[in-house]
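Hi everyone,

Forwarding the result from last night's run.
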Amino acid sequence: MRDRWVFLAWGSVKGRTVAGVLEWLNLAMEYIEEHLGEPLDAAEAARIAVTSEYHFRRMFSALAGIPLSEYVRRRRLTLAGAEVLAGERTLLDVAVRYGYGSGEAFARAFRALHGIGPGAARRTGAALYSQPRMSFRLIVEGSSSMRYRIVERDGFRMVGRGTRVPLVYEGMNPAIVEFVRSIGRETLGRWEECAAGEPGGVVAAVSNHAADDTEGTEIDYFHGVVSGTEVPGASERLDVGPGTWAVFESSGAFPQAVQYLWRDVYTQWFPSNPYRSRPGPSLSRTTVSDDGTHAEAELWIPVERE
């Protein structure tokens, strides 16, 4: 597998260049690599990257395509696999060297990644999975621009219905599709008529979603409208606290228009602007064409200044 190339917009922020941001990220990656045998100290890695731990985890997940914790797990077991095959240390020594408290725990983790136990791998010289060390590099490109605005909002209330759904990174999320279908087109139409304030229309809110969540992890999903009054068929509410929001707009093929917008925000906008993500629900409003192939999307991400 080749090193992952990250495409970033060129710019400078308060005296720092995007190249500088990448340098800090790569210093954080060096720190992680040097401490693979110890518990992950994401707070220290974030300090080296000159940002908050929350934003560091979000940024890494968006740039690398996998959560930070999953990357660290794969790197540990990649290096451990090489030592297992080399045969110079006992299996227990290898387990302890890479942070596993027992041979049993090491064997379970090893088998989960490599598909074979460490003992069998050593006996047979099996082919093992390899997670390359990641680094981030800059490619200057100016082929696209992003439409965004910064919004200061008092706290507001959404009314609608909520559920828990498995996280899906690519393509349609069947659980969300089924949940929205269960609400019904007529009910959604009544909700939209009752919407008052920004973000307007029927809005999806995702909360309790950590950057380290792997695909399939259950997250909170809420579908509703911003309103201070009772709304027919809206049996639940979601209170959203005050704060600053970065609001992005996009249009294109559905559902890629929404999913690629998420990617572009973290790979292009954040490195070029003096903001970082903060805890809070992410909001999105999507209008899909009648034939289901095109979408107009608006994404609200809670942010704070660096």
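Residues 68-86 form the longest helix (19 residues).

Cheers,
N.
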